[in-house]
User: Fold this.
Amino acid sequence: MDLEAYEKLVHSEAAARRFLLGFCWENHQRFCPRCSQRRLYRLADGRRRCARCRYTFHDFSGRWINHGALSGQQWLRLLKLFELEVSTRKMAGQLRLAYDTVYKAVTTLRLAILAHAQDGPALLGGEVEMDETYFGGRRKGKRGRGAAGKVPVFGILERDGRVSVEVVPNVRAQTVLGMAVKKVRRGSIVYTDRFQIYDALMFCGYRHLQVDHRARFARGRVYINGLEGFWSYAKERLMKHHGISPVRFPLYLKELELRYNHRHADLFTLLAEYLCDLVPNLG
Ligand SMILES: [Zn+2]
Assistant:
């Protein structure tokens, strides 16, 4: 979205809400966020009540955007700053909101990104790279596999395509292969290094090619530089958020996955769409 279009949106609360409501209700067709019923009663205060389950709701009820007490204009400004990777503290200053308010809103946005990612995107395929790495840990030394106090992460990268990264409980063959078969189309060509956990890939329906890191040069297309590039991008970016707790780490990881996968897209509009998603398991 260009700057002029953005400025029109945040110029008035009515314009901001209209834009956001467009992501909530396709063609203005309201339905019950709990049971999807389309027969609704309109209440005097503007809210609606479901004819089936009696749930009473307003336009943003049950959606991520409803968490955080920000106006439509404030949300859109926050999305713009988030797109530009402005820190939470600077956002608070620019939006003239309390740090805690902005921190909660940004966390809500990251939760929306995480939920959307778990919606099950299309399978990766073609030529893919798989690799595992560790994030965090204060001390240097003890690097690489088996490093204590670090978060193991498994990644799959489609050459010239998308990346999928996930925090894993461990980097054993069973864990890693279980994720591989869920995310990568059978028949794909999979590149890995020579770590033995990948040995069984050929039995999972993949053509498996290994890179030898000891070799001075990668042979032809047998390299995993794409994913290694993503790891260094992610690690550099997460340096900015030093001291991320292990509980919140997956949120930051999914944000980076999103930024990478939509590096050519309009992130602002995409974030607005995610923010207007219904929160899963609404009870
Ligand atoms: Zn209902």
Q: What stands out?
A: Residues 6 and 86 are 17 Å apart (CA to CA). Residues 3-119+268-275 form one domain. Residues 99-117 form the longest helix (19 residues). The first strand starts at residue 40 and ends at 42.
